[in-house]
Amino acid sequence: MKQSVKFKFFNNRNGKSKGIYYSLNCGFKSRDNKINVKENIEIAKNLISKEKKVLIIPNQLHSSKCLIVRKNKSIYNCDGVVTRNDKFILGITTADCLPIIFIDYQNKIIGICHAGWRGLKRNIIKNTVNKMLQIGSKKSNIRVFIGPCIRKNSYEVSQEFINDMKFNVKGLWTKKDNKYYFDLPKLAKRRLNDLGISEVVDSKIDTFKNIKYFSYRRSMHLKYRDYGRNLSLVSII
User: Fold this and answer.
1) Alpha helices, H only, the chain
2) In Å, what is the CA distance from 164 to each residue of 28, 157, 194?
3) Closest CA to 81 of 42, 47, 45, 131
4) Contact by Cβ (8 Å): 82, 109
5) How many domains does the chain have?
6) What are phi and psi of 124, to 5 degrees?
7) Is the full-model pTM beyond 0.70?
């Protein structure tokens, strides 16, 4: 039987959580009821596969570290994971940062990473691709999917931020009404193109503007005490 790949960028609907975490909050680092979070993750997991698979969600650190998943261990301290083993579901949580899924359909190799500005600056994308190559993938086969994240018009940053990023790529940032706005997805696409990967599909969903997704910035803007996390999953079926 030919294997395929299934993935999904989940929104915040159809879960068990209440209040500011309504309703599919999948963030164990949030202050939400952990029983609800666990149930939410199970709901999402079952939508990817009914089979008994091991879910790997790294302990994310805003790093550039990516690890190969070959066995079930309790903690993966990193921001990217890759595998060619169909016994695993790979996941990451986000709340404005980019969830990026990598799929090599030909060689049945998958990857996923959490890419905020720190991760993008530190080359989390390059490291994730390199780990896929290490286990048998080819760059020409890799397809990339960028999920819901904060978009340029919503991502206000300081002039110091712009200067510190040290990128001369045209259109990465704009200045409007004396405010600076930065385009994280465009930076991610540039990183991918520089690696020779051009097959990129962007969801174009803005987590800050779309209330069907959790957003750290929107929650802070509304003066919430905490915020939920969106889940993204991928697995070889």
Assistant:
1) 34-48, 117-121, 124-134, 159-165, 184-194, 216-221
2) 31, 11, 20
3) 131
4) yes
5) 1
6) -60, -35
7) yes
What CA–CA distance (Å, rounded) separates 157 from 165?
Answer: 11
Torsion (CA) 74, 75, 80, 84 in degrees, nearest 10? -20
d(CA 7, CA 89): 9
Q: Look up residue 25 and give its two tokens.
A: 């909050």
Q: What is the CATH number of the domain that holds 119?
A: 3.60.140.10
Which tokens sit at 88? 């695993």
- Over the chain (237 residues), what is each successive 10-residue block's mean pLDDT? 85 98 98 98 97 96 97 91 98 98 98 97 97 98 98 96 79 94 96 96 98 98 98 98
Note the residue count of the chain: 237
Full domain range(s) for residue 199: 5-150+185-236
Please indicate, yes or no, if residue 60 is contained in any of the structural domains.
yes
Q: Classify 182 as helix, strand or coil.
A: strand
Closest CA to 6 of 57, 70, 67, 51: 51
